[in-house]
Amino acid sequence: MMKTGVVIGVVPGIYVTAPEFRKRPISLEILANKIFGPSYVSFEYVLAQAGLIPETVRTVTSATQKRNRDFDTPFGRFSYRHLPREGFVFGWTAERLSDGSGYLIARPEKALIDTLYRSGALRSASALERRLFEDLRIDRDLFRDLDQNLLEEYTERMPGATFKVHLKRLLRSNHA
User: What is the DSSP letter of 68?
Assistant: First the structure.
């Protein structure tokens, strides 16, 4: 069936039908959950979907408890980044499509915390502010619109302490 073009191989063991045989479009998020799991869609992909960053993200980025992996497929690149168990088990939701299928995706607040956690240690609130608004180019107005209580809760639940103090200080200041 692959030789005739009826079926397209995504990665070994995962196949989809050719466009002319599909009842609905391919969901990149569902593929992301199936290619390497357990995982949930997060990081830059969710930040871009939420409009928090100005860049167009072509790679579907996901969090996993497993090691980092990248997959190049006929449907694009899928990137998986390791989070420790205590940082992986919260902050995502199951999105349901009209046909009953679904996928796991981070809330924008969790995608931001995941991104900050994976981006390395910070030594001050001003360094965090630079990382958010200069490096990541987070939209300040949309940042203010995020659920500040969720940001604090998610920060507390992440392992390590490098940005916990600084994010709380930034959230409480008038600079954000």
Answer: -
Prediction pTM value: 0.90
Q: Position 142: which residue type?
A: L
Number of H helices, E strands in the chain: 8, 8
- How does pLDDT run across 1-36, given as a tens digit for each residue? 777 777 888 898 888 888 888 888 889 999 999 999
Left, alpha or beta for 57 (phi > 0: left; psi -120 to 50: alpha)? beta
3-state secondary structure of 67: coil
Backbone angles phi, psi at 166, to 5 degrees: -70, -40
Chain centroid to Cα 122, Å, comes to 21
**Mode of pairing for the β-strands spanning 76-82 and 69-73:** antiparallel
Q: Average pLDDT in the 37-53 region? A: 97
> Which one-letter amino acid corresponds to residue 115?
T
Neighbours of 154 (CB within 10 A): 24
Give the whole-angstrom CA distance, residue 61 versus residue 50.
Answer: 14
User: Helix, strand, coil shares of the chain as percentages rounded to 5?
Assistant: 40, 20, 40
Residue with tokens 């989070």: 83
Structure letter (DSSP) for residue 60 = E
Task: Give the start-to-end residue ranges of the domains of the chain.
Answer: 7-172
